[in-house]
Design goal:
The structure is a homodimer of 209-residue chains.
Chain A: H1 15-31, H2 38-45, H3 49-55, H4 59-72, H5 87-103, H6 105-117, H7 123-131, H8 133-149, H9 158-170, H10 173-178, H11 187-205
The first copy, chain A, binds a DNA duplex (18 and 18 nucleotides) through residues 14, 16, 37-39, 47-51, 53-55, 58-59.
DNA sequence: GTCTATAATTGGATAGAC
DNA sequence: GTCTATCCAATTATAGAC
């Protein structure tokens, strides 16, 4: 399977190709790789199967294109504009953004499919990691470093602290959602989870005195 | 799909049934549900396909039997004999046991397949959660509660603290392993991860003074 | 590029003999 | 229970007309 590193924006593709990619994305994210047939994708896109094959050489390439496109969409996490002086408020904002990102139905679906298919398509792991978790952690790491420099936090290793922050915020709700346990949209619960995580993080990293 | 709640021990099954179940486990854990054919399982078990169907009514039932058997094998986590007075040492022991459990190739394979197939087989999520993460967290929660009672830790909500401990220890290495990033057996790295997590946890929950 | 129709293969499941 | 041989449905992929 080949995963295009930079996908053309969808507008640059022909109308049919765009429709096929969108249909494939919906189908794959909902059903996984193996359970979705090219027939179903063609039907959902409103084209014939031959047209699908005119744009994507085979099922694997189509799948790769979908994963690349979806992964790209998760690069939008930013923490740069937050004020490291108001540390608790900023961390809670970051935690809430992070949770909103990883708990969205789309993100959950992507996680499921990548984890489930990485044995068959080993490339997926790296593609997803670099487009998703790695970028997010870098953003948070940068914020923590700034906070440490001005004395808002007592952090020795900013990279490790960012890892731990992310892990604390993710908590067990993410895995529970991946396993389809518990409700889907529970926004109140997410806010509570974010606050608990930040509280513990601050107990560990707040400057002494 | 039906997931038998208590599986008969394998010795109680006939030799062929045992071989089939073992072969199916190897195949499913290595390749996932969709990518493994009944032909392949029969071949690996050294029997004909008809014999497979004589013991398991269809592919789904065989899969359910595999998942139930594997899940049962993850109930062995215990922290009851550890001494809550030597809190740092005990927590490091727990962290190392936990990491050894969740980072084992078998555990990783089970995680992948359950997360990947939970959309197709919604039962899997609950079966796995209760047999795995839930049991482990309960054990750790009990230990933390004992430690809090004797003043080794300053914990308000033991359940939440256990969640956070588990999340900190799991860190990002677990997801990286799920995605097939990084080396497989890196024991030294696991020990470092365990220590970092415990260090942060203790900074947050060590009694003041 | 796009369609209809079809080839070629795979894979789940079964019939029937022993 | 076990095997060989087979059925049948689904699925990937392509041929050929327009």
């Amino acid at each position: 399977m080949s995963v295009p590193q930079r996908t053309e924006p969808r507008e640059a593709l022909g109308g049919k190709a765009e429709a096929i990619l969108a249909a494939a994305e919906r189908a794959f994210l909902a059903g996984g790789y193996g359970a979705v047939s090219m027939d179903a994708i063609a039907r959902e896109a409103g084209v014939s199967k031959a047209t699908v094959y005119a744009h994507f050489s085979d099922k694997e390439e189509l799948f790769g294109a979908v994963i690349a496109a979806v992964s790209e969409r998760f690069g939008g996490f930013s923490a740069l504009e937050l004020d490291p002086r108001d540390i608790e408020c900023s961390l809670i904002t970051i935690a809430n953004r992070f949770l909103a990102l990883i708990m969205s139905p789309e993100s959950i679906a992507v996680n499921r499919i990548i984890i489930g298919e990485v044995t068959r398509f080993p490339v997926l792991g790296a593609v997803f990691w670099e487009a998703g978790p790695e970028r997010v952690r870098t953003q948070i790491e940068t914020f923590l470093r700034r906070a440490a420099e001005i004395g808002s936090l007592a952090i020795d290793d900013a990279r490790l602290a960012a890892e731990q922050f992310v892990s604390l915020v993710r908590g067990e709700i993410h895995l529970r959602r991946l396993l389809r346990l518990g409700p889907e949209g529970d926004a109140a619960n997410l806010a509570v989870a974010a606050e608990s995580a930040v509280e513990t993080f601050l107990r560990a990293f707040r400057p002494a005195g």
